[in-house]
Amino acid sequence: MSLTYWNYLKLDQILSQQQVQSDPPEHDETLFIIIHQVYELWFKLLLHEFDKIARNLANNDLFEAMATFKRARTVMKTLVSQLDILETMTPMSFSSFRDRLEAASGFQSSQFRELEFLLGYKRAERLADHEPGTPQHEAVKRRLHEPSVVDRFYEFLAHRGATIPEELRSRDLTLPTRPHPQIQEAILQLYRSEPQVTILFELMTDFDEGQQEWRYHHVKMVERTIGNKRGTGGSSGVEFLKQSLFKPVFPDLWAIRHKL
To answer: What predicted TM-score, i.e. pTM, was given to this entire model?
Structure first.
């Protein structure tokens, strides 16, 4: 069989995976499934791109890192816009099939948890969201123990002449990123001395703003749809999601804004 658009993209497999649980089928459940499947594809791409960014930063490859951050920010804009589509589903429409989801919940997305950990927002307790011994659990566990993009950013700064504090070079990789005044001073010096590097810093800040925008829009979408009901899977719903609001990936870039 010759390669065609259809079989190259394996559309037989992809387009057969939108299987609703409601009986008779509720119209909006198909929308709900497709949106979340598409999100998982975007998460897969973001993992792919940020693995590359980590390598670029570790290797002091400024221009490749800049190009890929620009792509990641564009993907994040798309993630935000997809929430507008999901918000066309009314609370009553969601309620019509919500009980069919049983214990399934978005907080069980192992790819999104991998992305959080890769970006430095690590919480070891979140491993419990994934069944031990499964590929998903192992993937999240591996990300927990690996250097984050922020750790690779420290390596990039060292390539550019910054002195990285010992407590950061030897830190526990399973802990979340914390701002550090010495890193902030190094960034300020580079803002003043290397104009090309400042473009990277602004792209990083732009992505960071985008991911915080997505989190906020996501929380408000969930609040609009289910109010203060508990989330599927037993989470606290909106309150659980609010815990991650306004947590930047690159806190040191935000800490210096008033000094620029």
So the answer is: 0.92
